[in-house]
Design goal:
The complex is a heterodimer of chains A (289) and B (125).
Chain A: H1 10-13, H2 16-24, H3 26-43, E1 52-56, H4 62-69, E2 73-78, H5 81-89, E3 95-98, E4 112-118, H6 136-150, E5 151-161, H7 166-178, E6 182-188, E7 197-204, H8 224-242, H9 256-268
Parallel strand pairs in A: 1-2, 1-4, 2-3, 4-5
Antiparallel strand pairs in A: 5-7, 6-7
Chain B: E1 2-3, H1 4-7, E2 25-33, H2 40-46, H3 52-61, H4 79-91, E3 92-100, E4 107-111, E5 114-115
Antiparallel strand pairs in B: 1-3, 2-3, 3-4, 4-5
The chains are: A alpha/beta (289), B alpha+beta (125).
């Protein structure tokens, strides 16, 4: 997996060309929109009230567009000027700020009904200079404490991010807890390498919603609907596994196609006693005791 | 795109600046009025969260005096009033200019509607 956060700081990595590329990539758009919808689901906002949300690391407004669609008023912050420029061109409705989230927010206490953040806080885990205020724990602490105070009680913040190790998850959750947040990590599709998504689901006060304090369950791709969602990523992997080096599809060993192929081969070689093909060929036997 | 609704939430977050850091004062601003659809329910919801004095003061600075000096209780709010509130909160956009902190005088520049909230290293708390 490529890790842009190891290449350069975000405001430099997302320069003009990268910002355009990022926004116009349709696969990226799709993933971002899925994750935004999932984050909103996890936010568990009361359905009939218009809410005021904070989009942390709003970038070019891919997630903001969905907030617009859903009828939320929102404020977005991001550190990359080029990304914000693209957001301006796309005419999103929310107010945009050029801000380093590791420096903390200056919002009045209790003004936001919730916060979402899509693929952002892994950027906080790299130190850009040796100054004490730019060490990752310091920046995370500043981020979580100011975020906690900006949210009203009860409410939630859902932060999707890409941790590169379990240590990182632990560091982030422990700092969030120290800042006063409840809640924890929700992992969607934990068994898939590609579809796996980590959401930090943080509660302020009771967390809001009916099942307050109880952490929502991650999707595991076992329900029918969910497996369809996962299939987008999983099918290709299956296919790639089946493909041999020449690029042709290879029948799975033991499958019906494979058996028929072998039998055909034996017949061609003149082997005797090759069983005839029928509808039962390659079927599993019933389990009997 | 700094609207007064967000300005009303914004305090200075520089190091050591914890008192008298709200509201930020607009300087040399260029305004743009952009009409948008009113959402009365949202306004009513947001109403208790507003810092009324700061809002009226700032609106006056920007040349809008349609709001009363004291915040009317939410029960007595009518459609006409919500319209005025909607206009002040969500339709006045500050495009260029700056916001300065009344306490530490930190200057947050606004370029093409985006305020620069970045701090220098020594200002980070």
């Amino acid at each position: 997996m490529s890790r842009p956060e190891l290449v350069a700081p975000p405001e430099i990595y997302y320069g003009d060309s990268e910002a355009k590329k990022y926004t116009s990539n349709s696969r990226n758009q799709q993933i971002q929109s899925q994750m935004t919808h999932r984050a909103l689901e996890l936010l568990n906002l009361p359905p009939d009230q218009p809410a005021f949300l904070l989009d942390i690391g709003c970038g070019s407004g891919l997630s903001g567009e969905i907030l617009d669609e859903e009828g939320y008023e929102w404020v977005g912050v991001d550190i990359a000027p080029s990304m914000l420029e693209v957001a301006l061109e796309r005419e999103v409705e929310g107010d945009l700020f050029l801000q380093d989230i590791g420096q903390g927010f200056g919002f009045r206490p209790g003004v936001f009904d919730g916060a979402i953040s899509i693929s952002v806080i892994q950027w906080l885990l790299n130190a850009e200079s040796s100054h004490p205020t730019s060490s990752p724990p310091h920046r995370l602490t500043r981020f979580f404490t100011t975020l906690h105070s900006a949210l009203r009680s009860p409410s939630r913040a859902v932060l999707q991010f890409y941790p590169s190790s379990d240590d990182q998850i632990e560091l982030i959750t422990s700092i969030a807890q120290k800042a006063g947040f409840g809640g924890g990590v929700v992992v969607d599709y934990p068994n898939s390498k590609k579809a796996r998504k980590v959401f930090l689901c943080l509660f302020v006060g009771g967390g809001g919603g009916a099942q307050s304090r109880e952490l929502p369950k991650g999707l595991d791709g076992e329900g029918i609907e969910e497996s369809e969602a996962a299939a987008r990523f999983e099918k290709r992997r299956e296919r790639e596994r089946k493909r041999d080096k020449s690029g042709k599809r290879k029948a799975v060993k033991g499958g019906k196609d494979w058996i028929l192929k072998k039998k055909e081969l034996y017949r061609q070689r003149g082997k005797e006693d090759v069983p005839r093909d029928s509808k039962f060929t390659g079927r599993k036997r019933r389990i009997t005791f | 795109m700094v609207r007064l609704i967000t300005h009303n939430l914004l305090a200075c977050h520089a190091k050591g600046c914890t008192t008298n850091n709200f509201p930020l004062v607009f300087k040399d601003v260029q305004l743009e009025i952009r009409e948008s659809e009113m959402n009365p329910e949202f306004l009513r919801n947001f109403y208790p969260k507003l810092e009324w004095d700061a809002l009226v003061k700032t609106a006056e600075q920007l040349g809008d005096t349609s709001l009363p000096k004291t915040q009317p209780p939410i029960e007595s709010v009518d459609e006409e009033f919500l319209k005025a509130l909607h206009h002040v909160l969500l339709e006045i956009h500050v495009e260029e200019g700056a916001m300065t902190c009344p306490n530490c005088e930190h200057r947050y520049g606004i370029v093409s509607g985006i305020p620069n909230m970045l701090l220098a290293e020594h200002e980070v708390a």
